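Researcher: We're teaching a course module on how sequence relates to structure. For the next exercise, students receive a sequence and then see the predicted structure as tokens, so they can try to spot secondary structure elements on their own. Here is the exercise chain.
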Amino acid sequence: MWITHVCPTTAAAPMNGPFLTLEPLIEVLREAVQASGWELSGLQKTTSHQFEGRWDGESTRSAYLFFHRADSPDFASVDIYLDETSRGLSGNVALVVDLAPLGAIGEASEVLSALARLSARELEGGQRRPITLRFRMDDAEELAESADTEVRFKARLPRSVVHGGRPAALSWLNTVVAAFAEILRSPELALLTEADDLADE
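Model: And here is the predicted structure for the students to work with:
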């Protein structure tokens, strides 16, 4: 059984050595994202304790950071997820984009392949770059063509960044956020975010 509660935000000075806990890593990543023009929309930290089962006695601390840009369309955001366990720190940074409805963007497998190529082109190799394409219907009786569509371009937090401290974190995230900016400017993404408008013309 997991028991989870929300913890208040506490400030911590960034470290130059390895990151050992969430707070210094949160501060450095937040600084880097905001320096690139994104504004903090929200920050949540939670602690979960496992009292039964395989992970009895384990605890997990997690943080979720959400960013938006006042000068960009509201269909895009940057989300950061961080996790602290007895095995260390992990996490990912994601560019989240709302696309046109499913019926306007074309065949799902072709769309996913195109978005994967875009991710591979803009995000540096040598790191894991998951990509998620989601469809959502508010009711089971709705037409599938009207389903909301969302893509998440992710970059996994490398262990080398955790061990490298502040300089490594700033360098890595600056590169990732710059790649996100190129993705947002790409013609491939524009076709998928504007597809609904083109279909109505």
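Model: If you want an answer key for the exercise: The chain has six helices and seven strands. The two ends are 53 Å apart (CA to CA).
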